[in-house]
């Protein structure tokens, strides 16, 4: 386990144009290599990558057009230190898979570069090997500038799920579509739930009051009374118009039927 | 009951209404049996009917049913803590629930408030909490509509 020493100076010689070493290919490809050492190096390379983020992205643009990027594979490299190495033309930021493919086809040299994440905060899982380009891509929904390691992917999936459900909730809660911002939407949702729960409480009080006297008359209940439901107290007090509109659907005659039949059955 | 008039016999609303009416009838029968304030009993009946109509497929209905079952044993104020509950309380005090901790520093500050409102929401992960919230809102509004219609129905009844 001798981790190859990778420093900036060792690369400035090789790549005069590159500004820094920001990434290290974390996986020993041809069997050798010290993983622990690599990981340590990755950690040390981190802050640097984050610091150079902006520079990186602009550089990516340039080198993408020129095709000057060299992704190097270390499979048949001779010395240990080049096994894990680095970028040659200052092109560290390869997240777009199509871009990656062009890079891969261009590449002729031996050391492979790990693409850094666009945000610069996370190490990226390498998904393309340069010698056999097309088949070992991992297909992810990552636009350029998005991290592609598994944690970031999971996190992004989770966030997508959350925002999708927020959207569903927004459709459910009346008047919530115009509200912008998750915090405000959540406030609306909370208010709505609270008002609904208060209504349930209130209605159960009313029902209780009314339930005691309704049973004797239930049998001879006149069916015609149900036609136009009057939304008196409950609707006025809590003032949720959407509820009231909704409740005025084709409901009442049906409900009445339910009531009648269930009571017949029960009696 | 004619078939063309009943919109959807298996809809949530139908099931809830049926159960709720049955529960109300039961309540009327045993009026003075318990010492609860009776509107609480109506509310519990409504919650139980709704939860039973959803059939414990959802986490919140399971929580509601659990709570009702716990509450039914004896009144809340002089009930000794059951061992399971005691254990849960201890665990909560020690912060033993990792999901709760994780959710608490999520993106939103209001999630904790939401957790308190949605039954069983304390131990949910945030995305499932939102899903449960959506379902809960739907059920709650159905409940409110049905109850309001029942109130209207009964209050329009000529009293004997």
From TrEMBL, chain A:
Signal peptide coordinates: none
Pfam families referenced in this protein's UniProt entry, alphabetically: HLH
UniProt keyword terms in alphabetical order: Nucleus, Transcription, Transcription regulation
Biased composition, class Polar residues, residue ranges: 83-95
Alphabetical list of InterPro entries matching this protein: bHLH_dom, bHLH_ZIP_TF, HLH_DNA-bd_sf
Region Disordered, annotated ranges: 49-136
BHLH domain residues: 146-196
GO-annotated cellular components: nucleus
Compartments it resides in: Nucleus
Predominant place of localization: nucleus
Any GO molecular function: protein dimerization activity
Identification of the protein by name: BHLH domain-containing protein
Organism: Escallonia herrerae
UniProtKB/TrEMBL annotation, chain B:
Coiled-coil spans in chain: none
Gene Ontology terms: biological process: regulation of DNA-templated transcription
Key words of the record: Nucleus, Transcription, Transcription regulation
Domain of life: Eukaryota
Record bears the keyword Membrane: no
Stored InterPro entries: bHLH_AtIBH1-like, IBH1-like, IBH1_N
One GO cellular component term: nucleus
Main location: nucleus
Keyword DNA repair applies: no
Pfam families: IBH1_N
IBH1-like N-terminal domain ranges (all copies): 10-71
Record localization: Nucleus
Protein name: IBH1-like N-terminal domain-containing protein
Originating species: Escallonia herrerae
């Amino acid at each position: 386990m001798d981790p190859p020493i990778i420093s900036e100076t060792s690369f400035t010689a090789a790549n005069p144009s590159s500004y820094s070493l920001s990434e290290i290919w974390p996986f020993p490809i041809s069997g050798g290599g010290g993983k622990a050492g690599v990981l340590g190096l990755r950690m040390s390379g981190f802050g640097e990558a984050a610091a150079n983020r902006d520079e990186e992205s602009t550089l990516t643009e340039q080198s993408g057009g020129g095709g000057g990027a060299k992704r190097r594979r270390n499979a048949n490299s001779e010395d240990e230190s080049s096994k894990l190495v680095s970028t040659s033309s200052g092109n560290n930021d390869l997240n777009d898979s199509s871009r990656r493919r062009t890079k891969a086809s261009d590449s002729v040299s031996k050391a492979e570069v790990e693409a850094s994440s666009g945000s610069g905060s996370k190490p990226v899982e390498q998904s393309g090997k340069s010698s056999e380009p097309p088949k070992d891509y991992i297909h992810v929904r990552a636009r350029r500038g998005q991290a592609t390691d598994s944690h970031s992917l999971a996190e992004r999936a989770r966030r997508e799920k959350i925002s999708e459900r927020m959207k569903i909730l927004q459709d459910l809660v009346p008047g919530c579509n115009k509200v912008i911002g998750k915090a405000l939407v959540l406030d609306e949702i909370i208010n709505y739930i609270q008002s609904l729960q208060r209504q349930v409480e209130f209605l159960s009080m009313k029902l209780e009051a009314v339930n005691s006297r309704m049973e004797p008359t239930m049998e001879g209940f006149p069916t015609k009374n149900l036609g136009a439901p009057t939304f008196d107290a409950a609707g006025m007090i809590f003032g949720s118009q959407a509820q009231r509109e909704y409740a005025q659907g084709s409901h009442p005659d049906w409900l009445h039927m339910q009531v009648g039949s269930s009571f017949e059955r029960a009696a | 009951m004619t078939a063309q008039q009943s919109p959807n016999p298996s809809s949530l609303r139908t099931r809830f209404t049926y159960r709720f009416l049955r529960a109300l009838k039961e309540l009327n029968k045993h009026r003075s049996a318990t010492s609860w304030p009776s509107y609480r009993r109506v509310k519990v009946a409504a919650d139980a009917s709704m939860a039973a109509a959803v059939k414990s497929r959802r986490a919140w209905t399971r929580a509601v049913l659990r709570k009702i079952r716990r509450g039914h044993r004896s009144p809340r104020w002089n009930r000794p803590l059951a061992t399971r509950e005691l254990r849960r309380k201890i665990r909560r005090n020690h912060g033993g629930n990792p999901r709760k901790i994780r959710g608490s520093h999520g993106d939103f500050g209001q999630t904790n408030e939401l957790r308190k409102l949605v039954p069983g929401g304390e131990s949910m992960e945030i995305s499932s909490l939102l899903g449960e919230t959506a379902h809960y809102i739907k059920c709650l509004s159905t409940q409110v509509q049905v109850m309001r219609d029942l109130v209207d129905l009964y209050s329009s009844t000529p009293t004997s």
